[in-house]
## 1
Amino acid sequence: MSQSLSSLFEVSIDFDQSHLFFPTIVITLIALMALWIVAANAKQWVARVRSGELRLSPFNEHADKFRFFGTLVLVIVYFWSMDAVGQLFPNTGMGFLLTSIPFMLLLSLLYVHGITSRVLLGIGLNSIIAPVAAWYLLGQLFAISLP
Amino acid sequence: MEFLALLSPEFFLLSAAGCLIGIIFGAIPGMTATMAVAVCLPLTYSLGLHEGLALLLGLYVGGISGGLVPAILLNIPGTPSSITTTFDGHPMAKAGEPEKALKICIVASLVGGLFSAVVLFFFAPMLADFAIKFSYIEKFLIIFFALTVIASLSKNILAGIFSGLLGVLLALIGTYDTSNGGNGEYRLMFDFMVPYLETGFSLLPVLIGLFGLATIFEEAEKGIKEEDTHSQIKLKGHKPFHFGVFKGQISNLIRSSSIGTFVGMLPGIGGSAASVLAYSQQKNLSKNPEKMGKGAAEGMVASESANNALTGGALIPLLSLGIPGDSTTAVLIGAFTLQGLQVGPLFIGEHMDTWYSMMAALLFANFVMFGAMFFAIRYIAKVVMVPKYILYPIIIMMCVIGAYAINYGIMFDVWTLLIFGLFGWLAGKIGIEVAPLVIGFILGGSAEVYFVKSIESYGTLSIFFTKSPIAVVLWLLILASVVFSILMHRKNKRLANQVEEANA
């Protein structure tokens, strides 16, 4: 009896397949948890969606989609262009510097409420000084790799 | 005492600078201590280990403390852990005593920070000494225990476990590394991903994405609303502060600091849990509970001493077991890795100098925090007014530098930032909890090695129960945390039902 019990716990791992052993266990557990969560909450979710309390959209009710998607687009263009420009001037950090200035300017303009000439001056100065300072201090003085 | 040679003027300067930057991050609502550490990481790339850690610990202490400023003056918690400071701090400030409220909180913060640093100093080496004897089996069980604790204290147990497991799965993406005894095969990805994810997602870009960029997306969705700083209570011409307000608060200070330190030790539990627990405990024991929430000093003392005590507490499991106590210490793990150091049971014994210099930095940062906030609070109060349209672009820029430079110029790490920034934004909405996810992500790789190698050596699962008395104790602890969480869950459900019935 005790032998059959101990043989129940015996596990041998094939070395060639050992990279999948633990991930399979974790994925199985995640699937079980997901099923459990759905089973425990499905009724409540359906009721809340029907009553309009739970929204299927990932956005909040009064989401500022303009600023959200504006941020997303600017970030994607920033990351992409930083690499592209960086390849034109390798190992100089210019990809970072030349793209950060317009990125920061545009993002600040996207975020600001109520533009006055003073605010505009602040934004303009910040979007030039901050990247130049970061580029000089971190990239040049501290020799940190920049795109 | 060789470590004294490490304490250069630069060391103290960086610790102080970190503390001041941390206070600014903490004082701006929406920016946290974790974000401060994540965003400022690139500053440490070219520094030595000790200077880098001095800066980061300063940021940590400053970041946790700074949150009290807007909590009191604006009724907005600067960091989640200062939520309970608003309960009494703002009413007292509104009643004409803002300076007194701020200074009570600053002193309580200092006491909490120092208390936890002392506990850390004595307790972490003891725990590490004990943990040195652990084999892979006990190490796996410790990770398992950490994950059950996180899950059991999550807002929703099922979501907590799910998030932790998801973090583990994310950590497994990439090669099953031969240096850990793996077979060098890829898993959990398509062939086209191999060039990018050969070694999996890098820790720091993931963390910077989750704690830096995700916050910006959340704020962008809300429309980047500037705080209404016109309603900020001015600090001029009010009654001065006297230390006499602490009369009768000693037991409160010690109790709340102990609660904060203990909560800090539990992995994945943030500062808000520490301060809420200390606050409610004080309310239960108070002689005048009716005064709490209306400007009582004892409420502020409980809240602030607990959330600052979190700092030392969260460093205990990090330095003795390699398990971060909260999300900020999770980022600190990244800083250690960057310097080629592995934190775990051997760390303190093998790096005594680093350990002592960290303690020095932590203590010094607490005093700088106190000095800066106590004497320059009027200027710090103005920081809250720095507009977000200026700050957020700078933060994204710093996030990019941090992610790109971490592996000496990998563009995919910058894209990782975006992937996890968006993921972090979405996670909160679908109920995935970020703290368990991050801890799972950090511990997932080790968990696999300990688990698979144990089975390969012994060929049976029963070894996890029979290896040693410590293993049995760990199983009992795991069981206790599961039972505790079920009981708590039931109690909360019953309370919710009662409230519902009462409302009906």
## 2
Amino acid sequence: MSKRQASIPHSGNIERAELENGITVLVYTNPAVQSVNLMSSVHGGSIYEAPEQSGLASFVAGASMTGTANRDFDAIHGTLEDIGAALNFSGHKHKVGFSGKALAEDLSTLVDVASDVLRNPVFPTEHVERLRGERLTWLQYSQFDTRYRAAKAMREALFPEDHPYHYGAYGCEESIAGIKVEDLKAFHSRQYGPAGMILVIVGAVKAGEALALVSDTFGDWRQENPSVVRCVDAPTAGAERGRQAVFVPGKTQSDISMGIIGPARTADDFPAAQLANSVLGEFGMMGRIGKSVREEKGLAYYAYSRVGGGHGPEPWTVNAGVNPENVDLAIESILAEIERLTTELVTEDDLADNQSYFTGRMPLRLESNEGIASQIHSMESYRLGLDYLLNYEEMIGRITREDLLAAARTYLSAEDMAVAVAGPEHPGL
Amino acid sequence: MLQVTHHTLPNGLTVLLKEAHSAPVISWWLAYRVGSRNEPTGKTGISHWVEHMMFKGTEQFPAGMLDREIDRAGGQWNAFTSMDATKYFETLPADKIAIAMQAEADRMVNAQFNPDETESERTVIISERQGAENQPTFWLQEGLRGSAFRVHGYHHEIIGDETDLRTMTRDDLYEHYRAHYCPANAAAIAVGAFDTEDMLAEIERLYGTIPASSAPDLFARQEPAQTGERRIVVERPGKTAFLEVCYRAPAATHEDWMKLKVLDAVLSGSSGASDNKTSRLYQALVKTEIAAGVGAWLTPTIDPYLYSILVTLREGRTPAEAEAVLLGEIERLKADGISEEELNRARKQSKAAFAYSTESVTEQAYWLAQSFILGDVNWFDNYAERLMGVTAADVLDVARAYLVSRQRVVGVLQPIEAEEEQTPA
């Protein structure tokens, strides 16, 4: 193993243990820093909520930090803020994640608070109502955010109402207004448990000490009647064709959001799709789309594409912000690049450039505790194997131009993209 | 931790180097002492536009070549224009840093400013401004700056006024570039996995041959003293009201700046390390359900700027009641000062924030570049030490000196129904 490979997290330097209650713990020692980071997840994402309660999973995540059986709101936050530590919960589609950081000397306090808010939240009514008000304010503000409105319209066109991806993680004003404390408690009881939980610790800590700490703190956690882990398929109905136009008053720019069903992170062709996406709207100054829309035509400040990945059929998206007069031209330019990617092989240079980009950026991604924790969490969560990073260069190097074309043809279609534009009224809308 | 070494080349280029061997990565920065602060009326936004043009290539590195080479190497590169400076950076695997060093040396003197590309970029920059205008709070910020600074260059947004973006010419941009991009007005900064002696030799080889010139006369006008509270109201379509209360703050190198930083940590919790839910303003405004959020900013600047507190109102609550509570908290601070417990929390948070920020070489290099811009290359390295030296009495002193109505600017973003928006025919 070369010196460079030895510095990459892999099965030989990541300590991995499975507790009896089903928690998988992974520890990576990074002696170059003074701090530690936690990254964790449980199966408590928005796919487990009913459509009329959209936003519930995220609400539970946020409300977990407002009071436990052992600490009230001020005690939770006072304990963390007194030591300059941070702990954040965030609701996603499939999982709820929590991440934290502290000075290495304060790891035990951080783990103790994390365990408490994860296991023992009581959802105090006073704080639930306050949080509800904050979320309603955010949702009201978002109604006047053109990027949010365009992305929402695209998502709703792509996923029908009976698909869990139709709904945003934060819900809507109606659903948030209707969620009761009992709903929070029931969701927590159903979805939060040790089975399937992943906990990654990275930083200035010895692996044995960290494992012992987690075992002592989380080892006795048990859950009655955990819910079954759910998988999500792509919707059977195709995208709603034609443009979704959203008028947002008082704006000077239009935001464009385009999308189509993309591959899950675990799909065999996900790496090829990622490379194809990089050619389309990432590499250099936002790939071919950036070159066409921004550099050559001067239409937009931003124009890029992204393949979502994730545990289910996340959308493959293109986003751009343009003057209202340029909406049609920008959309046509983007669709032309999608058409090109799905009908022509990328050049040898394009493939080589992007392979080099993907493998070369790894050292920067592993520069911080947070970056390392994120990579290790992904390896475990998507079952990529703990030597995934070690083999990454070789895996990327095996991908061919034909693989990129096949991935692009499998998922992308200029004709079937859901297209939404949010902004001021203009002739194109 | 290894220390920063400070050098000056014969042509006037400042060089700051710091070895960090935790990852095989180097962050390379060029910082120029020119920003929106130095722009006269009619040329607002010119520093930012020049920054964009610096990515259009030179004869040696044509447009697109560096995008490709840096991405191929797995690097990051970007640039930022602020009120005080324009900064360019590349972070790359250590064995690939040479191209970044060569490219920055080249574009310090050889950027082309092709007329067609200048015109193409004009629409990109106007698009960037229009994208910002889509956020209602942009209009509040722009209004507050204009109210707080009548004379000084801090009065306009970094992106510039649209009328200037439509009228500036290629020659205006090129003249600005030629006047400000020279060794005597710049610093080169490297943080990462290198040997200082070798790195300095390479910098001397690449940058030492750039001709010397005297540092430019930077356009800067002193703001006259404020003589009373100022207030503005901005109306935009929407549902959410905002209140922003600003006080005049000293320059970052003034001894009072760090005392205000501790004051801010107690008042708003803006430590950069943890959340702010124990802070006085969160407790007084958010926990009481007047506001959905509160945050504050004390930006380190060359000249005196602002300490700003932004409150996001909940539906049904008014800016007036939020302002009354906020000002009440400020008066309490001025009357009673802060407790030792609050001071110790601010100190611990500062220690943690410093540890987090030094994990990344890019962040370390950013702060070294910022220290150069502020005129004190030790500003960042001494940051934690200076903060630890602040006492509760210091905080009381600056609260009484700076948080006074005569030096206050208050802004309200009042949401209106869409049909209420009036535009001239």
